[in-house]
Write a structure and sequence with these properties.
Helix content is 49%, strand content 16%. The chain has eleven helices and ten strands. The strands form two sheets. It has a six-stranded mixed sheet, with helices on both faces. It has a four-stranded mixed sheet with strand order 4-6-8-9.
Length: 260
Amino acid sequence: MPEEVLLMEEQNGVVYLTLNRPAVMNAFNFELLRALAAAIEDLRFRREVRVVVIRGAGERAFCAGADLKERASLSPVEVKAFIHTIRNLFTAIEDLNKPVIAVVNGIALGGGTELALACDIRLASTSASMGLTETRLAIIPGAGGTQRLPRLVGRGKAKELIFTGQRVSAEEAQAIGLVNRVCPPEELRAACDAMAAAICETGPIAIAQAKYAINRGLETDLHTGLAIESNAYWLTIPTQDRLEGLAAFREKRKPVYKGE
């Protein structure tokens, strides 16, 4: 029986999605793209899931990008379908109504870095290496890299990295703001678990609205962004969670939020 290309583990409100093609450094083929897209769509409507973590199987790679062996067998039309699929998938991850943490446990090149960029928070192993290397294959990043990287690290640095196809170490990735935190490999899972647990203590409706306000507001001028924030805030006011937060503060206890 063939091994599943995507593994799912659920624990205390956190779902861990593992890209499971370690023999090819967890590279994306159509099967893996479709499996991840189906999982993300399912998780969107599961209120009990508070955080999603995406990682790669094994110790060598998070994701080495597109499976170039499969790519070599595709017609130009099939390549367009692949790019359409992966671009829509990463947009769905960016727009998911829950925080998504990328655990970059090794090499993340091309689509692997683009996947990390679509996530909300990026944790990296000291052994990680990241880069948008597509121009070295005479193509360009096609799953959001030309848009998300400059928004994260700035226009000039993004152009340097994309134009040269240069890889960066975990330490440089942190220095330029590409990743949030760098940990030794043996501490990466614990750091991820701690961050996910901290998020799980917060109000789920508030988190969804905060993510929406940040993502949408950054694409506008400040005045419009403030209006987006204001509307997102109004949605939290009538919730039971907001009342629970006030009661817990008054009673000096931890709140129990239900997403209601």
